[in-house]
Amino acid sequence: MVIVSISLNTDILSEIDKLQKSLGFTGRSEVIRAGIRTFVSEEKQKTNLTGKQNAILLVIHEDEYDNVVAGIKHDYEDLILTHLHSKIDGERCMELFILAGDGKHVKAITQGFQTNKNMDTVKLFAI
Prior knowledge:
single chain; alpha+beta; 4 helices; 31% strand; globular
């Protein structure tokens, strides 16, 4: 086994501690390993997106980043069949995109949101 050192802010560390207790993990490392396994599995699914795809993309972000979402959305208008925007938790927004098109473009829009540090949650569900 290889040891990897990472830096976490106190908010993320607090969330990891909550997960550890609520899910019964033996330590923080177990929580982080489970998270990495989930992330790797989801990324493998996205890698296999080829040809015509239908998908749902869920994005959650702070209200102040609506302009960032609009910029990414603009780049993929041909892929988006439906877009729903809803306020949640006061200052947070949920974006739901129904997508249809080439798998490479589905992957690209997902990565556009996923790599933007202003997005809290990005989940792709290939149908």
